[in-house]
Amino acid sequence: xxxxxxxxxxxxxxxxxxxxxxxxxxxxxxxxxxxxxxxxxxxxxxxxxxxxxxxxxxxxxxxxxxxxxxxxxxxxxxxxxxxxxxxxxxxxxxxxxxxxxxxxxxxxxxxxxxxxxxxxxxxxxxxxxxxxxxxxxxxxxxxxxxxxxxxxxxxxxxxxxxxxx
Length: 165
Fold this sequence. Notes:
This protein is mainly alpha-helical. It contains five helices and two strands; from the N terminus they run H-H-E-H-H-E-H.
């Protein structure tokens, strides 16, 4: 693992996104129990890293993070963003009181957000597509991961309530 290959816009952007994401995570009004909050961050990290290691830099190698195809320190900063997104998904799922009727819209909206963030990451050279991969291919992956995250949220909050008492 290389510590830093080239400190440039993508590394600065990742630092800024992490500061914003985790500041919001800590300063938004408390809605989720501490256990649900921790599990939401871990779910975001796990799901994001699983798919990233599979299609990004692992088995299929469709895109690279940051400057090179090998792992470096700022890849960790990239992966930590998945945790914040996992938290925000569950936070707003609870806040908006998503139900069986609105869950399809919610998952679709988050998938679009994921596409927009991935597009922004390509513009900032945080992600670089290779091996004929295109942004549109990510949409069904986001639909799948958001659906799994929604099921996971329902599972961990079922009959326990997710609001603070």
